[in-house]
């Protein structure tokens, strides 16, 4: 068992820092195993401190002390104490500024957790958010301590010719023995989590950007030499983001230099360090033959996200880590807006909501549920969650809906003006929105403190004589850990009405006529009355997914088919198709349970026939309309998840559609199948998405013709989108050439790590019977590396999180496998290990046998010696 239970940190216990750091000078003598760090901290007592003590406590982990002095005088051993997590200076001046000098050693090569300063290949780099800086040197490692950094890097010139840090370069020079130095200074105060350092043999791709005020900004992307030809899209994405932020929010970049570095070993997607963003290579490198259309869009979105953080995260940062959604939820909303403007707004909204409802709603419904502003944590890295990010973005989106685009912009302008250079709270953000718009948002604040997904139940009554529609809405929210009872929320509900012919029906409310309105649901139950309706309309509710809720509104199959055909709201039209498929699939699941023969409702075939006949402008949207609900989303709708029945019923629908609409799928495929490699226009991307959606359906037929079609596309593809789509079809079938195609793909791309990640993930997520044996075999593959987070996510993550059929095998082999890997990762990389544990967190949602098997593995994990805080928190909460 563990020696001691890790301590919980509570929001209610927040106190201001006892000391402040006015400036810090850092000197690094870089070496992959023996880096020497010298820090000079200019400090003073915080006048807002409430602690009368005279000691100074600096956070620090895995550090070897060399020297320490106070105001130039070396300290004796009796003057300070060191524990595994901190250094305490017993007496420091209280009435004047003072200087602490610390010299310590660290071993980047031994740092497999990838926090602090670590080695990625031959490159040294840092990751300091949330609490990685304490693994570099002793410091006040908390976001509300903001200071100005001056950094000098010294290293062997051959091994580390490029030396980078935050801010502006202020000097460089040559030293004896083939060594050199570079000095950096950041003019903006920042918390230490935004510090960055990179050293290595890197090539630079350079460009520039002219701001709206006419300033010239140098743009530099640093990558390993063999990746230079994959940076064009990232650079253009950065310039697109800079221009968009100026035009949409009036925000201009503030330094003279903006740098991005791509590294192979990275726990996250990217990090917004001031002026020096460190990125996972996955979100920088792209070439048409190595990256899919989705990769291109994700790269632009993540580049935008980290750039937007310059204001919503850096210039204004979090007071404490409980406020994480202040920067992340806001910035996710901003990057969603950006991507929607740059691509298809309809497709972007649907993709975001689909991910939210599939994964975040599951988080809300399980033992790990928490508000977007949590009340407590054991390990802050565990709260970089879908709730904080994605639900946090939905809460910001609701503010945008309630205030309107102009009102939201006014609120943002005031927020940036009020709090520039400060570490603030979610409350400060809401206060700015209220003050700028003259509104009161007290009830809306509950979204920040209440966990769980609200359920919106709607009933309707139509009075033919009075020509009146009455909509009654009830809101409720299931209990979540530590929150058994919930207060009503302020829920914006966008609504439209459709006449029987499919045209918009005018909405008359309070004597005014509208085509679309936003209703404010603020009570547990409210009734809204609509007058002057000659015939009963079809209600289009929660348009654009105007609030992150589960909508419970009885609909017939015919009504859903009507909305799928006529609704002018692109989200609700797609949603009608999804719910039509959901109802049909659940009817088939009941047939399976009752051992009745399966038949597909003709209404579904007719609806899909209509979709295939469309000739709309947005082909990417048309491809989404053809997609069936994910198995994970379907699982979220069942009180007790039956993974086998879900898979078989969904496959039956897909196969039957392919059989009944064979000619239509082939026709649409042939129309849009063409070589447009290197073209990323909306039309070209849409054609690829639509034809590959058709290929996926045709693959269900397991026929000689479908095998030949997939093989031909695989062999002829000149872009990764088409090649991986064809390989996916082959892998998820009994294709006779499957092994040959997998081997050819590997041989072709074995030197491209990100492409091989796709190769691993495709096999790990396959629904074919031999998948678990394949995953076990791939664990021994020479290209698999437990030290590389991307590779772990591609194999172990894909199997446990994207393959419900085989991960939840009745014999429990998937659960044992995952627990084995979690324990192996626990000592290597606790952050990645804790993310893997979440695959077991939803054990209560399954049948009794699976529950016991999953609990056994969670108990086994918790009982392990030397378990990291990261893994302990997730595993123990899952069992609580």
UniProtKB/TrEMBL annotation:
Domain Peptidase M1 membrane alanine aminopeptidase per the UniProt entry, residue ranges: 234-447
Which segments constitute the Peptidase M1 alanyl aminopeptidase C-terminal domain?
558-880
The cofactor(s) it depends on are:
Zn(2+)
- What region holds the Aminopeptidase N-like N-terminal domain? 109-194
Q: Which residue numbers delimit the Peptidase M1 alanyl aminopeptidase Ig-like fold domain?
A: 452-553
Give the catalytic activity: Release of an N-terminal amino acid, Xaa-|-Yaa- from a peptide, amide or arylamide. Xaa is preferably Ala, but may be most amino acids including Pro (slow action). When a terminal hydrophobic residue is followed by a prolyl residue, the two may be released as an intact Xaa-Pro dipeptide
- UniProt GO molecular function: alanyl aminopeptidase activity
Look up the domain of life of the source: Bacteria
Asked if Zinc is a keyword of the record, the answer is yes
In terms of Pfam families, this protein maps to: DUF3458, DUF3458_C, Peptidase_M1, Peptidase_M1_N
Q: What NCBIfam families does the entry give?
A: pepN_proteo (TIGR02414)
The family this protein is said to belong to: Belongs to the peptidase M1 family.
> What name has this protein been given in UniProt?
Aminopeptidase N
């Amino acid at each position: 068992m563990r020696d001691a239970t890790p301590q919980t940190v509570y929001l209610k216990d927040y106190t201001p820092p006892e000391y402040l750091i006015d400036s810090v000078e850092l000197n690094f003598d870089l070496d992959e195993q023996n880096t020497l760090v010298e820090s000079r901290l200019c400090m003073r007592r915080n006048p807002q401190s409430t602690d009368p003590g005279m000691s100074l406590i600096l956070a620090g982990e895995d550090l070897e002390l060399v020297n320490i002095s106070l105001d130039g005088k070396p300290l004796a051993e009796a003057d300070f104490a060191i524990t595994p997590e901190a250094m305490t200076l017993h007496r420091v001046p209280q009435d004047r500024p003072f200087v602490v000098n610390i010299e310590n050693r660290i071993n980047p090569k031994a740092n497999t957790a990838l926090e602090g300063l670590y080695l990625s290949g031959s490159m040294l780099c840092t990751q300091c958010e949330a609490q990685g800086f304490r693994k570099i040197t002793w410091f006040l490692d908390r976001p509300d301590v903001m200071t100005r950094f001056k950094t000098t890097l010294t290293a062997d010139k051959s091994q580390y010719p490029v030396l980078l840090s935050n801010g502006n370069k202020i000097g460089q020079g040559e030293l004896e023995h083939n060594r050199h130095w570079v000095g950096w200074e950041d003019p903006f105060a920042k918390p230490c989590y935004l510090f960055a350092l990179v050293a290595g043999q890197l090539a630079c791709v350079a460009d520039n950007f002219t701001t709206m005020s006419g300033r010239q900004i140098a743009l530099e992307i640093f990558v390993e030499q063999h990746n230079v030809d994959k940076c064009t899209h990232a650079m253009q994405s950065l310039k697109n983001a800079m221009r968009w932020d100026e035009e949409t929010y009036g925000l201009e970049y503030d330094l003279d230099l903006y740098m991005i570095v791509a590294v192979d070993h990275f726990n996250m997607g990217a990090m917004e360090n001031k002026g020096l963003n460190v990125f996972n290579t996955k979100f920088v490198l792209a070439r048409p033959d190595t990256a899919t259309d989705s990769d291109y869009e994700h790269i632009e979105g993540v580049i935008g996200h980290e750039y937007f953080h310059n204001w919503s995260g850096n210039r204004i940062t979090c007071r404490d880590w409980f406020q994480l959604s202040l920067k992340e939820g806001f910035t996710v909303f901003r990057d969603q807006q950006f991507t929607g403007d740059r691509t298809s707004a309809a497709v972007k909204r649907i993709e975001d909501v689909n991910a939210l409802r599939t994964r975040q709603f599951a988080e809300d419904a399980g033992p790990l549920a928490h508000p977007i502003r949590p009340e407590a944590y054991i390990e802050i890295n565990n709260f970089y969650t879908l709730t904080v990010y994605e639900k946090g973005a939905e809460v910001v989106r609701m503010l945008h809906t309630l205030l309107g685009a102009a009102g939201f912009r006014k609120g943002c302008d005031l927020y940036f003006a009020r709090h520039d250079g400060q570490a603030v709270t979610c409350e400060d953000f809401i206060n700015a929105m209220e003050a700028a718009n003259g509104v009161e948002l007290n009830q809306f604040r509950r979204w920040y403190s209440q966990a769980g997904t609200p359920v919106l139940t709607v009933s309707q009554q139509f009075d033919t004589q009075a020509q009146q529609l009455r909509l009654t809405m009830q809101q409720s929210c299931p209990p979540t850990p530590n929150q058994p009872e919930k207060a009503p929320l302020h829920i914006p509900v966008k609504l439209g009405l459709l006449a029987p012919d499919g045209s918009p029906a005018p909405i008359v409310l309070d004597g005014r006529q509208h085509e679309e309105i936003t209703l404010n649901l603020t009570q547990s139950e409210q009734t809204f009355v609509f007058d002057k309706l000659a015939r009963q309309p079809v209600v289009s509710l929660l348009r654009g997914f105007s609030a992150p809720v589960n909508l419970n509104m009885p609909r017939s199959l015919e009504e859903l088919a009507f909305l799928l055909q006529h609704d002018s709201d692109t989200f609700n039209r797609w949603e009608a198709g999804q719910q039509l498929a959901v109802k049909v699939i659940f009817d088939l699941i009941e047939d399976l349970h009752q051992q009745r023969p399966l038949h597909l409702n003709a209404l579904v075939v007719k609806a899909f026939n209509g979709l295939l006949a469309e000739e709309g402008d947005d082909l990417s949207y048309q491809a989404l309309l053809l997609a069936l609900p994910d198995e994970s989303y379907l699982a979220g709708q069942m009180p007790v998840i039956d993974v086998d029945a879900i898979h078989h019923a969904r496959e039956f629908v897909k196969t039957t559609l392919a059989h009944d609409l064979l000619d239509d799928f082939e026709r649409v495929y042939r129309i849009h199948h063409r070589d447009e490699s290197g073209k990323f226009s909306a039309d070209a991307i849409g054609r690829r998405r639509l034809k590959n959606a058709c290929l996926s359906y045709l693959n269900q037929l397991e026929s000689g013709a479908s095998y030949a079609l997939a093989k031909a596309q695989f062999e002829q593809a000149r872009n990764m989108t088409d090649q991986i789509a064809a390989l996916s079809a082959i892998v998820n079938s009994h294709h006779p050439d499957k092994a040959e195609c997998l081997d050819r793909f590997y041989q072709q791309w074995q030197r491209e790590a990100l492409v091989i990640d796709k190769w691993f993930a495709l096999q790990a997520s396959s629904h074919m019977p031999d998948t678990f044996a394949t995953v076990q075999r791939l664990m021994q593959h020479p290209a698999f590396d437990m030290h590389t987070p991307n590779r772990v996510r591609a194999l172990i993550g894909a199997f446990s999180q994207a393959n419900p059929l085989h991960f939840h095998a009745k014999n429990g082999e998937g659960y044992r496998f995952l627990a084995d890997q979690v324990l192996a990762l626990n000592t290597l990389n606790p952050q990645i290990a804790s993310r893997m544990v979440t695959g077991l967190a939803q054990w209560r949602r399954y049948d009794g046998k699976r529950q016991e098997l999953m609990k056994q593995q969670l108990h086994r994990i918790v009982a392990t010696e030397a378990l990291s805080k990261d893994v302990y928190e997730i595993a123990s909460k899952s069992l609580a």
